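Before relying on records like the one below, remember that each one covers exactly one chain. Contacts with other chains, cofactors or solvent are not represented anywhere in the record.
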Amino acid sequence: MKVVLVTGATGGIGLAICKKFKTEGWIVVGTSRSSNFDSEFVDHYISKDLSNQESPKEIIEDIKNKFNRLDCIVNNAACQICKPIWKMEVNEWDLIYNINVRTIFLFVKYGLELLKNTKGNIVNIGSVHSVVTSNEIAGYASSKSAITGLTRNLAIELGKFGIRVNNICPGAVDTKMLRAGLLRGHAGSGDSDTLVNNLGKSHLLGKVGNVDEIANFVNFVADDINGRFINGANLLIDGGACIKLSTE
């Protein structure tokens, strides 16, 4: 059976990704900071803080010892801190980049041999903020742009081993992170339900995305039956939000 590692496995998108892979017959390894987590969709859970540079190495060692196989890494874990750039502390900036970008590099560094053995693939979870963005989110948005560039370079470097690397960029998806971001005030007033509904009305489809839609797309790209010829791609899944001018 194929083995997938999903980071940020306890969050909305992360858990949905775990569920999708599990229902497709994969062995699912999930990791997150949460110490107490149990789900029928995660076969093996590893509690680690990805801001610690040793964590990716320890996670890969755990997978090697338990399964000696790895077919896909889904780099879903993310840190988002929303504040004006001049108010952001250096340690906050570093935290964003360490979790969002450095972790991808470290999982490649330590997981390469396992991925080479299976000719596996990597799916990075970027963001629509790498294409179009908003106020007071520079750290997160720029880190997601970095992931887009890193994905291209990894696709080039790892292609010689038959390893595919792709980046999926969700738009507005109804998660705790989205709701927390909307409550910072830039999207108007009201509770989180009101703000999510109002945001949905600005989309061509009249709604924001849901976590299962993202999970289905991730699995499609990761599965060699469907995604074998998808490599080095930056794939938007945003309900068409990016295609309409804000002036219209």
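The helical segments are 12-23, 55-66, 90-118, 138-158, 176-182, 192-201, 211-222, 224-227.
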